[in-house]
Amino acid sequence: MAGLWTELKRRRVIRVGLVYVAAGWFLIEVAETTFEHLDLPDWTVTFVILLIAVGFPLTLILAWALEISPAGIRRTPKAEPTAPEFSSDESLPPGVAVLPFADMSPDQDQGYFCDGMAEEILDALAHVGHLRIPARTASFRFRDAGDDIQSIGQKLGVPVVLEGSVRKSGNQLRVTAQLIDAANGYHLWSESFDRSLEDVFAIQSEIARKVVQACQVTLSPSEEHELEKIPTVNVQAYDRYLRGRQFIYLYTRKAIAESNRLFKEACDMDPDFALAYCGLAYSNATAYHFLDHSEEKLRLAVENSERALELAPDLAEAHLARAMALSEQDNPDAIREFKNAIRLDPRLYDAYYYYGVERFHRGDFEKAIELFNETTRLEPDNYLGYSMLGAAYHAQGLGGLSTESARRSVELIKQHLEVTPDDLRAIVLGATDLVEIGEEDEAKTWAERALAMSPEESSVLYNVACVYAVTGQTDKAMDVLEKAVVAGYAGMDWLTHDSQLDNLRELPRFAALLESLD
């Protein structure tokens, strides 16, 4: 209604209406005073009143559609887009949501590259202190969701949305980006970039700068540096890195092996690419934990994390990679490195998440709760933090809080599975959370679905065993848990401290399993 009232005033409809009413009233007074003395019939006054009444809406319509100017009568022009009103609360900085970029490439096979561009822009903007940038998990859930920009802005609590598309063909890029006012749908800025692949970092930086300028934010020197930061001089290495990152969180044997291969290629192409060494350290540490408990995997995780730190001692991701490698060694220095990563980048979600996982491993549930709570603050639409927070609360005997966290996790997982229905990790974690909220039948259905999809994955087998254990199916739980260990799972700390396995701890089979891993 406020917008309609503003438009009525802009088109002078209110002014014309008031003038018309005043003039009409004057004409009626004149008619009543003079028509009798002119011996005109009584109905003529009524006729004047009817003419004025009929003319009123017509006049308003003409006032809306036309305007009188020195150049003559013309259509009223549309309102020009106005600068966004970023927040009615002056204490809040402007908010901008970065949506995933659409893949317009001929073969539709560049989704990882499109996501990578959007993530790099999002990350650069997130380092600008005077901007509010919803996390990736929040904004990327609107991929192919069909929501209009106004709805997205309302759901994310931001007045401005950045969207774009990428067409990658060989060595050529066409990137289109537009900044849209979520209140009225007007484009605040729009531009297309036709460049070579080598210009990808310049394009990302330029788009981020355009957003900052539109938001009327002044950058500090450190923020300027973030917008100009280039991760590697080798664009092909960057492409491999983005593809590797696509697989890194899937936790299947095939995905871990593929991410490892791609990160290795990126390191070979650019031996000074610190982020690629971070990815290589992480993929080796993950393989060591879930698939291949060999000294070789652990050695590679440690060596690659060391190389990442040598190349970029101030890179938060390098300290995180080092922390994860050290934690697999049971090295207490891992805690120092987790803290270093958080100090260097307080917004780095993975630093809090994996630090919390490490504390959960060690049975320090109080600290784990603190860290997982922080993940839910940083990314309130990411199910991982809520799922682990619920497990930590459960381990502390805080049933109400555990159920609340698990319920939120299930809600987010169901939303996530609408977009990516085959995400095994989401399915198995959702199964354990469904048990926590009392939906045991649905939990078993999800667990069996995961087993049917991937019956040999150690991480799947472990989580399914947890579902069976909590629901009292101890023999089935032990069968699946033993298969998980045969498949490569060797998380001794999880087996020791995970409260979801408490129903198994008095069983001779469980004791024998722990002994086999000791």
In terms of DSSP E residues, the strand content is 5-15%
Q: Tell me the number of helical segments per DSSP (H or I, 4 or more residues long).
A: 24
* Oligomeric grouping of the chains: single chain
Structural class: alpha/beta
CATH T-level topology of the largest domain: Serine Threonine Protein Phosphatase 5, Tetratricopeptide repeat
Please describe the biggest sheet, giving its number of strands, its sense, and whether it closes into a barrel: 5 strands, mixed
- Name of the CATH class of the largest domain: Mainly Alpha
CATH architecture of the largest domain: Alpha Horseshoe
Helical content band: 55-70%
Count structural domains. Answer: 4
- The general outline is elongated
Ranges where pLDDT stays below 50 over 5 or more residues in a row are 80-90
CA(first)-CA(last) distance: 70 Å
